[in-house]
Amino acid sequence: MDFASTSTPTQRCSSCWPIPVPKKEPKRKSNKAPNRESRPDTLPEWKALTRLAADPVGQALTEWLQRDNRFEDFSLQLPALLMDYSKQRVDARILNALLDLARARSMEANIEALFGGAPVNVTEHRAALHTALRSPAGQQPGEARSVVEPTLVRLASIAERVRSGKHRGYTGRAVTDIVHIGIGGSHLGPELVVEALIPIHGSDPRCHFLANIDDAALHSALTGLDPETTLFIVVSKSFGTLETRTNAESARSWFLERTGDVAAIARHFLAVTANVEAARAFGIPEENVYPLWDWVGGRFSLWSAVGLPIQLAVGPEAFAELLRGAHQMDEHFRTAPLERNGPLIMALLSVWNSNFLGATSHAVLPYSRRLRLLPDYLQQLEMESNGKSVHLDGSAVRIHTMPVLWGGEGTNGQHAFHQLLHQGTRAFSADFIVCASDEAATPQSLEAHHRWLLANAFAQSQAMMSGRQEADPHRCVAGNKATSTLVMDELSPFAIGSLLALYEHKVFCQGVIWNINSFDQWGVELGKQLALPIFDQLDGKPARQQDASTRGLVEYVRRRLQERRNQEDKHV
Question: Can you tell me the distance from the alpha carbon of 422 to that of 479, in angstroms, rounded to the nearest whole number?
Answer without folding.
Answer: 7
